[in-house]
Amino acid sequence: MGKGKGKQRKQIILPPELPPEIAEDEIQVSDEDLQFVDENKDYAGFVSRLDTHSINRQVTRVEGVSEDALEALYEKRRRKALEQKEDERIVVEVAPVDVLPVKSLDGEVYYRTFSQSAEVPEDEGDVDKSMVKMTKAERRAKLKKSKKEAKKLEKESTKAEEVQPTQQESALAEVKEDLTAEEAFETKKRKLAELGMALLADPEANIKSLKEMLQFTKDGDQSIVKLGLLSLLAVFKDIIPGYRIRLPTEKELEMKVSKEVKKMRFYESTLLSAYKGYLQKLLALEKQPIFHHVVVRCVCTLVDAVPHFNFRESLLVAVVRNIGSSDDVVRRLCCLAIKSLFTNEGKHGGEATVEAVRLIAEHVKAHDCQLHPDSVEVLMSLSFDDDLGKPEVQDDNNKMKYKKNKKRKNSEESNQLQGNDRKKSKKEIIAKMKEEVAADYKSVSYTPDVAERKRMQSETLSAVFETYFRILRHTMQSSEASSEANGNLTPSGSGAHPLLAPCLSGLGKFSHLIDLDYIGDLMNYLKRLAARGSNSDSSALKMQNLTVSERLRCCIVAFKVMRSNLDALNVDLQDFFVQLYNLVLEYKPGSCLCCRDQGEVLAEALKVMLCDDRQHDMQKAAAFVKRLATFSLCFGSAESMAALVTLKQLLQRNVKCRNLLENDAGGGSVSGSIAVKYQPYGSDPSLSGALASVLWELNLLSKHYHPTISTLASGISSMNSAQNQVYINISPQQAFKNLLLEEESFKFNPQGSTQKSNSKSKSRTTALPSTLVRDEPPPIDENEVGKKLSRHFALLRDIKENERLRGELDRTTTSLQLYEEYKKQRKSGIKKSKRSVGI
Fold first, then answer.
1. Residue 49: which H helix or E strand, with range?
2. pTM above 0.70, yes or no
3. Compositional bias of type Polar residues: which residue ranges (predicted)?
4. Whole-angstrom distance, CA of residue 107 vs CA of residue 185
């Protein structure tokens, strides 16, 4: 036993290897560790004073073994580890897809394999870690290093994928983005609809949802922004109350109120702040062309629906700013909004009308009268009360009576006893209560009293006439400036004065409201604008750039102003008759819309100046009769119809002018005593000598292609033989319109089949004379007409061909004659040269 124990060798256990040294850059210390060390510096100070060399030597030593033996053991352990690594092989089987199998002689099939040596990291060197366990610090460092490498690999892989994406992946990404965008759009739409329905169902409980809906107007998607604006428009249009919201003052906020009052205050303040934010968003988006139409539609709808509510001024400014826009849709929306504001004054009490008219006047002034005609034509929708001053007189009389009765009562009450003081105090209290109730009712109702209405009407009228007079003055100044700049004056059309036509129409409508102090200046302006521009009148020469339609409107306005203020004015209108007499010859018809407008204006001028005025001088009436008959020969059927109707009415009222229908030698029967010779191009109708002529134009007009005109001309020619006949009279305007409608629906039929539209023709000709029925023309053979036309044009072609051949013959003969003369001259020259040589 003892021998066995003695012989037993003592096993030497080597200490584990020391952890590898790590660079300070690779050491990662957490923030918690740093904080702990900073807080406990006193306890951790001994670490800096440790002797690491002695500690390492103490740890690596082995008790009872010399240093040489210990070194030999270390070398042996390292040698053994290296041999084990060389012998270690990792066998890897090749995948069946990559290599074909091999069949042995025994019939077994197996796949090839290859050996792969384990790679030894360079950092570990020759150290054998299989026999020595790793410390915690080594494991931590290795784990951190592996994490860093994994992150680097992930970043490199993602970069490679981003740099070289496949077409399929990009297409899938686009489809996913579209799907997500559509889903987001649908969710936002549903959210908007839910919020709007909740607000419409219970506005007081869901008033906070307005702020959520306002957030949709700030979205990046343009469709969502438009939907948000329109949804808020529908909500505000429905929940806005019928009164202006007045926020409580500081003193009112300090007072104690009930819960219902607090709830109502919160509702009104939230609604007002949301409405203000909505208007600010609308005005901000108005500058962007994408949202311009939507913004204008929202603003015009609010002006039409809630003109009484807060921030009305901002809405009116936006509408008036776009009232002269070049976009037809925007301009039409703004004009309709302003017209509805003027016609529905019950919604706002007339205050919005005054503000709108002032803004229009400022807008016209800012743009120097260069706007679309619709921007001033909206003023025609205004309506004024002519009887506002009458109730005031009655009220004044009532006040005077009340004062007298009050004085009497006071004198009587002074004589009464003191016991009657109580009754007097009760009456005063009742009177005060009635006054308070009347004041409250007045503040709530939209109908102002008579004094307020009169004030607003006077302000509106002053702004309207200020705009009209500014347009007239601008027309005069621009015409004079253009005449000075250009020596040769030519008509410039209505483009130079776009606002003149609606201005004159407005003056004609509101002529009875013009102050008498301004009518004299107005008539002078109209006279200068309507002047033709003769050489003798330099001021009229400057106005030559106005169109015929505009000058006719000036004459019409002058007559309307004169008739509406007939009792207070004494103005000679002879100059306007002279202008009408000359403008008839300057009229230029056509098929365009502007020419049709000129025809309507001409018909209105004939009605207002010649038909409505029953007193005419015989010379002047005869001159207009003769010129209108000449005019009927030259222009379209509608204009000719208006002229013939006017001519007929003049002959009916002036019996002596019917002498023009007589076919005497040298003129009518009264021509010898009044005028020697008729002057067709005279400028003054009173000096033209029209009674010395004959209406031979009616004979040609009786053969007019239009049956209505030919029948009317034939009826006028037979007036002298039936002086006591009763005639059916219509105005030139109505005759012009009727014939225009007939021309639009009438198609000339050479076969004579005019019985298809008997009902329509009867309804249109009821207003015209009953003698318009004419025999149907006989049927025409189209083949015969075609043959005659072909022979006619063949003859024309032959004539032209003969003329061409004769011209060529003349040219050839002249060239031959010139050649013969040249030969003769050449021969004579040769003879002369020979004679000179011989000499």
1. none
2. no
3. 749-769
4. 69
